[in-house]
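Notes to self after the call with IL:
- keep both proteins in one doc
- input above output, always
- annotate only the second one for now

Protein 1:
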Amino acid sequence: MQEETRSRFTEYSMTSSVMRRNEQLTLLDDRFEKFFEQFDEDEIGALDNVELEGYIDTDNTRLEEVLSDFYKEKAKNCVKLDTLEPFEDTPANEDSDEEEEERVALVIEEPKEKWDCESILSTYSNLYNHPKLIEEPSKPKPIKISSKTGIPLHVLPQKGLTAKQVERMQMINGSDLPRASTQPRSKNESKEDRKARKQAIKEERKERRMEKKANKMAFKLEKTRQEKELLNLKQNMQGLKLS
């Protein structure tokens, strides 16, 4: 007949357990029981060395032995002065030579790209493809039309002579200067000669005034003619649009 065993934790019978106890379960039960033996009534109590109390003198032999053992352990890890190698001084000249060496700062720059967006596009150029920068075309100035005449402004020449016309007039005046005003006056000039010279100068100035007036009239007539032509052209263009 099998001996009945009880558990220390539950005090239930292990032999009457529903689960069949094989070797592994039996081993597990034994270990569990062995662990709970430490908590039996006779094992419960204060921890070890808890009730130790008292005072020990500094001259106690036991304390001196503990301290001596501690110092011996520390001495093993220390290096004695006799075992240290003597330090050899380096010559002063060698140190000075090393210190006199110049130090040059070396600046390392990041490598730059060899191509930019404009130059890389130039490599795609062929017979039909010519890459270039896109330029924004300048906006044309709006044409302003006169409210009186209906002719575009700033198209006809402005009032007065242009720069080229002024230059041309100066060349003409420079080549055809009045002779009476350019001839040197004689010191022994008589009254009749002086009177004749002044009269000649007056006549030449009168001719220049008449020539200037004729030029102004010619420019005025030419301007009127061009304005009429532009007006007729504008009317003809409007007639073409209506038809």
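Protein 2 (the one to annotate):
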Amino acid sequence: MERVRDKERYVIVVVLVVVVVVVVVVVVVVVVVVVVVVVVVSFMFFQANRAERLRGVTQLLQEQQLTVGLQVELNELMRAVVVGLVVVAVVVVVVVVIVVVVVVVVVVVVVVVAAV
């Protein structure tokens, strides 16, 4: 009877470990996809506006309005910084979600194993 109970415990632990591994892998894949999508979308946004910005800056420089041209460059730099901060914020949120999911799953596994 004790062997059957030990076998049941072993099966439960193995199943829970497999579930934890699958959940972690799925979460990591989702994180990677989200980060790649954010980076690609931000890159496409900047590429789409690049030609227009360069034309505007060139025209301003040709008109000898250097201070306006510098202001435009500063605005572009600030926009790039904001996009970078958004990307970092998304990555931080996703990492926090991963950690919370892993901790919850580990706690559930420990509680279930202790209850068996």
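Annotation: The chain has two helices and no strands. The longest helix spans residues 2-62.
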